[in-house]
Amino acid sequence: MTEKAHTQEAEAPQFYLEEEHHPEGSTMLGFWLYLMSDCLIFAVLFATHGVLGRNYAAGPSPADLFDLPLVAINTAMLLFSSITYGFAMLQMERNAKMETLFWLGITGLFGLAFLGLELYEFYHLIHEGAGPGRSAFLSSFFTLVGTHGLHVTFGIIWLITLMVQVKIRGLIPENRRRLMCLSMFWHFLDVVWIGVFSFVYLMGVLG
């Protein structure tokens, strides 16, 4: 092959790259933008509850319905899950695969306990005739708390999916990036729930 042919082959355009091309930081930036949009959704739901939260339609009020000790236990479940996820991230930094999976599993169990108590509360309220159609207060309550519960459900599904990926492929850079995104999402849900506990439950019962 002549020198000219070598030069033409070297200068031939490439229309694709075989290796993965992922701009540094693009995933995290995109996920931050998603969390900001989620903040707007919850801000609207909090505002709606603030407007409708005292419209009982001659029905039961928060003081009549809410079991604060049960809600406090539920809150502790979610806070503990955030702590155990932090332990998982520390083990990820140490490149300890099995320890990371262990703490992710504990996090998932706390998340499931949170969802179980929330579903029990919803069942109890509906069984007493305090369903979402009973008053504007209950409609806004079920919408706000239910939306948060759906986010936790999605987070648990995401967590299980990542555990399978880590089990199969290990703590490769792609899985580390995904675990970081889920960490942001999980802690975000913690912050939102603290707002729900304070604004909906505590202010509802004590106000």
Automatic annotation (TrEMBL):
Record membrane topology: Multi-pass membrane protein
Top-rank taxon: Bacteria
Main location (coarse class): membrane
Pfam families on file: COX3 (PF00510)
InterPro entries reported in the protein's UniProt record: Cyt_c/ubiquinol_Oxase_su3, Cyt_c_oxidase-like_su3, Cyt_c_oxidase_su3-like_sf, Cyt_c_oxidase_su3_a-hlx, Cyt_c_ubiqinol_oxidase_su3, Ubiquinol_oxase_su3_dom
SUPFAM superfamilies: Cytochrome c oxidase subunit III-like
Subcellular location: Cell membrane
Domain Heme-copper oxidase subunit III family profile, residue spans: 29-205
TM region positions: 29-48, 68-88, 100-120, 140-164, 185-206
PROSITE patterns assigned: COX3
UniProt keyword terms in alphabetical order: Cell membrane, Electron transport, Membrane, Oxidoreductase, Transmembrane, Transmembrane helix, Transport
Binding partners and assembly: Heterooctamer of two A chains, two B chains, two C chains and two D chains.
Family per record: Belongs to the cytochrome c oxidase subunit 3 family.
Role according to the record: Cytochrome bo(3) ubiquinol terminal oxidase is the component of the aerobic respiratory chain of E.coli that predominates when cells are grown at high aeration. Has proton pump activity across the membrane in addition to electron transfer, pumping 2 protons/electron.
Protein name: Cytochrome bo(3) ubiquinol oxidase subunit 3
